[in-house]
Specification:
Blueprint: E1 3-5, H1 10-13, H2 15-18, E2 21-23, H3 26-29, H4 49-60, H5 73-92, E3 99-103, E4 120-123, E5 128-135, E6 148-153, E7 156-161, E8 167-172, H6 182-201, H7 205-236, H8 240-244
Helix pairs in contact: 4-6, 5-6, 6-7
Length: about 250
């Protein structure tokens, strides 16, 4: 195990104190720690916005910042791309803390031009970044997804489908950092790095591609672990047919 100069702690400890050497934890430094299994309670991260700024800047290899109020190129770019990075990262994977179910609000006037294709029209859910599926009450676990379409009609983002009293499973925009889990914090830092690298590095395309690959690897790791956890959970579910008969008998 090597050593790491704790510059990321500089905003809270002072530069001199931050220069003390600490044990190197690669899983923390490079964000390879993964969220806990889905069967456990998902704990929110204690990471703040400034720390995510400095994580992103660390991936790029530029100087870190001590305050989000600094008038520096690094701070300006982090502030400028923060919202775009958050929304993009949340759309890229269904992080559990950002998932919810909503009742769709039906539009009073169905658009005439779509009556031959769809039966119902609903307004886009408030704060929804992505709609994953549309279903009727109690039928969200169907193997096949109900078809739907998203259109902008009379300046209103509209969901068209054939389901009465429809529900939607969505990713919502969670802006409060304290509600994010560690997995998303790591993804957010990588996504932010991808966006701010171009203006900070003056179009260093090779570095941008490296950061995009780093972000893609993060998503792949999350998907792989999620698939593994789902498989484990399925193995733990007892067969009700077997239980009803008192178990297997040889």
């Amino acid at each position: 195990m090597g050593v790491l100069t704790n510059y990321a702690a500089a905003p809270f400890m002072g530069v001199r104190a931050a220069q003390r050497t600490l044990p190197l934890r690669e899983d923390v430094l490079f964000g390879t720690q993964q969220p806990p299994p889905s069967k456990k309670k998902i704990m929110p991260s204690t990471t703040g916005r400034l720390h995510i700024y400095n994580m992103a800047l660390g991936f790029i290899g530029t100087r870190i910042i001590a305050s989000p109020n600094e008038n520096t190129p690094e701070t300006i770019q982090c502030e400028l791309f923060w919202d775009n990075a958050r929304r993009a990262a949340l759309r890229d994977y269904p992080y559990p803390f950002a998932q919810t179910r909503v009742i769709l609000g039906q539009l009073a006037n169905f658009p005439e031009e779509y009556k031959n294709e769809w039966q119902y029209a609903y307004s886009w859910p408030n704060k929804a970044l992505k709609v994953h599926r549309i279903h009727s009450q109690g039928k969200e676990r169907r193997l096949h997804k109900e078809p739907y379409a998203v259109r902008v009609i009379d300046n209103i983002t509209t969901i068209l489908c054939n389901i009465e009293n429809a529900y939607a499973e969505i990713t919502q925009d969670i802006t409060e950092v304290s509600l994010w889990d560690d997995s998303f914090v790591s993804s957010m830092a990588r996504k932010l790095a991808c966006l701010i690298a171009v203006p900070l590095l003056k179009n260093n395309q090779a570095k941008v591609q490296e950061l995009e690959q780093l972000y893609a690897m993060q998503l792949q790791n999350i998907r792989s672990q999620s698939a593994s956890e789902e498989e484990e959970n399925q193995l733990e579910i007892p067969d009700t047919w077997v239980l009803a008969r008192g178990g297997w008998h040889g």
